[in-house]
Write the structure tokens for this entry.
Amino acid sequence: VKQGSTIPVDGVIVGGSCTVDASAITGESIPVEKNIGDKVTGATINTSGYIEIKATGIGEESTLSSIIRLVEEASASKAPVARAADKISGVFVPVVICIAVLAAFVWFILAGNSYRHNDGNGQRCSDGDSDKVSRSLGKSRKNRYSCS
């Protein structure tokens, strides 16, 4: 494997020495010195030197294939906590919505017209008259609670 080339397969160095950038596989930012007898991993880069390697892991047996397989398995399955959260939310959300709708319905039935306020003179004022109430607050004490 020449300098600057990608190491094609997992193997053992049988000749030469080099510096290998394994950041794509291990995340190491500093290249590592490799000599005869050291293991090298496929998909790493020979940054300096010339080496001859004996292949030990090709195809499905390589480190890169193992990483790909593990990532695929991890992304295909859900974590147990995520499954539990899905089950709980599948019950919790509809129950909360039903309680909210029921509470609104009960409030509407029990409250009737009590949502309208009294102006103090026995007259009931609708919500549309509330702006009139706020305008009349400063006019006089007599008209303070008047709807008109």
User: Anything to note?
Assistant: Residues 80-111 form the longest helix (32 residues). The helical segments are 63-76, 80-111, 130-136. The mean pLDDT is 80. Strands lie at 10-21, 32-34, 39-40, 45-57, 117-118, 124-125.
